[in-house]
Amino acid sequence: MLASSAGVAAAAALSSAGGRAHGEPVRQAALPGLTGHDPVGLRWLEGGAPAALAAGTTWGVSWPRGAFAPDQEFSLATEAGEQVPVQSWPTGRWPDGSVKWTAHAISGAAPRAARYRLRSGVPAAPGTPLTVRTGNAEVTVDTGVIEVAFGRTGDQVVTSIRRGGAVIAREGRLVASRQDQPGTDGAAVVRSESFTGVVRSVHVEQDGPVRAVIKAEGRHENDRRGWLPFVVRFYLYAGSDAIRVVHSFVFDGKEDEDFINGLGVHFAVPMRGALHDRHVRFAGEGDGVLAEAVRGITGLRRDPGAEVRRAQYEGRATPGTATWDQRVTSRLRYIPAFGDYSLGQLNAHGFEIRKRTGQGRSWVRADGGRRAEGLAYVGSPAGGLAFGMRNFWRLPPTELEITGAAGDEARAAVWMWSPRAEAMDLRFYHDGLGQDTYAEQLEGGLAITYEDYEPGFGTPYGVARTTELTFWALAATPTAERFTELAAANATPPLLVANPEHHHAAGVFGSWTPVDRSTPAKAELEDKLDAMHRFHREQVDQRSWYGFWDYGDIMHTYDPDRHVWRYDVGGYAWDNSELSTDLWLWYHYLRTGDAQAFRFAEAMTRHTGEVDAYHLGEWAGLGTRHGILHWADSAKQVRVSNAGYRRFYYFLTADERVGDLMHDLVDSDRSFLVLDPLRKIRDGGPLDPDPEALPVGSTTDWGALAAAWLTEWERGGDPIARTKLINGARTIAALPNGWVQGGDVTYRLSDGTFSGPDEKSVSIGALSSVFGLIEVMTELIDLVDEPEVRDAWVSFCRLYNATEEEQRAATGAGWGNLNLRQAYARATAYAAKQLGDEGLARRAWQELRTGHAGYPEDHPFTSERIEGPAVLNPVDEADFSANASAQFGLAAIQCLALVGEHLERPARRP
User: Fold this and answer.
1) Looking at the structure, do residues 112 and 145 belong to the same domain, yes or no?
2) Which of the pair, 151 or 683, is modelled with greater confidence?
C-alpha cells in the first residue's frame, strides 16, 4: 500500500525557496544540460485587468523538458516592466528531474496589468511579506493588512480577523443541521438537531512570503454524534485584506435518516457606531447592489438633511446628529432598526431579499431578482466584513444571512445549503422494482432503462462536495462601485494563464495542437468542434443543470420525442464522465484558451471529482457509472474516479483540493479486494480476491490506475507509483497479445505487474481505451524509453480498426464487430505518426469521416430552436450525445495533432 504520507513527501521534494511547504526547503543538485527558457507571456483568462482579485491568484505554467531545475527562481513583471512580487514552486517534474510545471502566486495588492512576463530570475519581494506564526492554541497569519488567527483545535476554525488592531470578525465556525424526516413526506413530527465543526488538526501548507495556505480538518459534532468530515483550506496573500476559502465535506450519514437542512460558515461581526451608521450590502445580478442601513433615515416624513441622507446611502459616516433637523434627531428611537437580513437563492432562477427587526418578528420583503452574484456586507464606516460564495446561483439552495446587526454583534453566515430550503433528500429514487438477483438486474433494468441497479449500491455514503468562499475584512463600508468589483472577483476569481502555444511547445498533455484554420478542411473541422462544444455548454443554462449536487455535470443522451435530455431514464441521465467528457472539455480549452471553455471544464472537474466518486468507506477511490442520481448505479469503477480527468485543472491552477483527490487514488487498486467489477457476469460464484492475482482489467481499469500513478510520479510522490506504472506497462506489453490478451490475465497488487497465459488469445471491448488509456499511453511512451511497450501499444492502435485479416495475422484471431470506430481513429493516427505510415494517416481521417458510433462527415453540427408549447422553455435541440461528442472531440483533436498534414477536404456530394 502506498503510504498516506506520499502527499507530504511530494510537497517536501518539490519545495523551493520561493514557495515552500512548511519546514526547511529541499534544494536540488544542479541538473546537467539545462537549456533555460524565454520569458512566458501571461494574460487574464477573461481578458483585461480585473479591478479586484479574490485575495490573490495562483496559476500554473508548463516548461519544456530540460529547461529548469526544480529550485529555479522566477520573477514577474508587467508588460511595462514594473516588478510584481511573486511566489513560485514546482508542481511537476519530467523524468530527468527538470521542472515540468510550476505554480505562481500574486496578491490582490500587487501591481495590476492586462499582461505580464514570467522569466527566470530573483522575484521581487512584497513590501510587507506575509508571515505565519504557530503557537500552542493558534496559527496566526499576518498579511500586513489583516491578521487572521486559526484555532488548532475546538469549534472555532477562525478565532479572529483583525485589521489595524480592531476585530473585524471572530468566532468563525462551520455549522450544520439535520432532521430525521424529509420535509416532503408529511411527517407529523420532524426532529432537528444542530452541529458545529470541530477542528482536529491544522496544517500550514505554505507560509509565504506572498501566499499562505492553512488546512483545517475535522468533523461536525454535537453531544450525541460526530459526522460530516470536512477539509477547509484558507488562502491569504501579502498585502491583501481578503481570505479565499475552499470548503469540502463528505456525506457519511444514512440517506433515509439524515436529511441535512443547513450547512454553512458563520462569523460574529462586532458592530460599531450608531444604528443609522451600520450598513448592509447585497450584490444582485450583474452590477446590482442593494444598499441599506440598519436604521434608515431616508424617506422619512421629516428630512434630516440632504448631506445626511447622501452619506448614509453611500456608506459614509453621517454628520453628527446635532446638525440634523431636530425633528428627526429627537425621534430616532421611533424608527425601526432592521437587524436581520437574508438573501435566499433557493433555485437558479430567482432570489429574494428580506429583512426583519429581530427574532420573533415578521419578515419584510425588500426586493428580489434572478441570479445574485453571491456577496454581502455588514459593518460601518469603522470597518466590516464582506462575505460571499462562488457559483452562488448555480449551486442552490444558497443563502447569505445577517442577524443581530442592531445589537453589539452581528452574525454573518454563508449558507451552502439554506435552512429555508427543503431538507437535502439523498434517498434512492425507486424501490428496486423487484431486481433482487443479478439476472434480474442484467435482464431487467439494464436492458430497458440502461440502469445497472443493485440493492444497497445506490448510496451517497462517501460522496463529497467542494464550495469556494471569499471573505474581505474591510476598513470601511465599500462604495457601491467597489462592492461590485469585489462581487465580480468572488463570482469569477480572476486567473492568469499562458497561451495555448506555450503549453503546446512545452510538450505537456500528449497529442493536441492550438486551433489551426490554415486550410479550408481544417477550418471546417474547427467550426464543427466549436459548434459542438458551444451546444453542450449552452445546454447547461437552457436545461437548468444547476444545484448543489448537480452543477458541473451534463446529461448523457437526448430524448427527441419529449425534446428533453433523458434525465429520468436510468443510465441515460447524468453523464458522470462517461467516455471521458472531462478530457474532451480540457483539451478544447488547451487548444482555444477560451475563458468559457475553461470555466465549463472547471465546473465539471469540481463536480465529477467530488460527487461522482467515493471518498471514504469500502468504496473509497471508486466512482459511479452514469445515472439518474450521481451515485445511483451499482457499477463502482476506477474509470470514473479517474485522476486523468483532474490533472489538467491541478497543473493549470495548483489547486490543493484536486491534488488531494488525485493523491487519494494512488491506492485505488486496493478497491479490487473489496468489490468485484465483474461480479454479475462471473462464472463460478463469488470471487475470493487474491492480492497476488486480482481481476484488474489491463485496459479500462489499468488506464485509470495508470493516470493516478503517472500524476503521483510527476508530482514527486511515493516512488511505488512510478514502479507500478512502469511494471504494468511492461508486463501488459509482454503478454502474447499485449492489451488484447484474453484468458486469465491477473494483476499483482504488491508491485503492479500483470501475468497471463503463454498462448495467444483475444479479448477486447470497445470501451477499453476510451476512458483515458489512449491519452495516458501517449504521454507515458513519450516519458520513458521502453521500446517493447511502445511497439505493443502501436500494434494495438494500428489493429483496432484494421481488417480481420490483419488482426488474425498479428494476434491469431479477428477482434470481432467492434464499436466506437470513429473514437479509435485517434489510435490509428497515433500508429501512423509512430510508424511514419501515410496510408494509416489517410485511414485515420477516413475513419473519422465515416463516423461509426459517432458523427459522420455529413452530420449536421447545427441546432434547431424549439419553442412552446412543445417545450416548457425555449431550447436549442441538436443531434448530439455526450458519448459521441466527447469521443468525436478527442478523436478530431488528436488526428489534427498527429496527422493534420494529411487532412484533405472531401469532395461535396452533388
Assistant:
1) no
2) 151
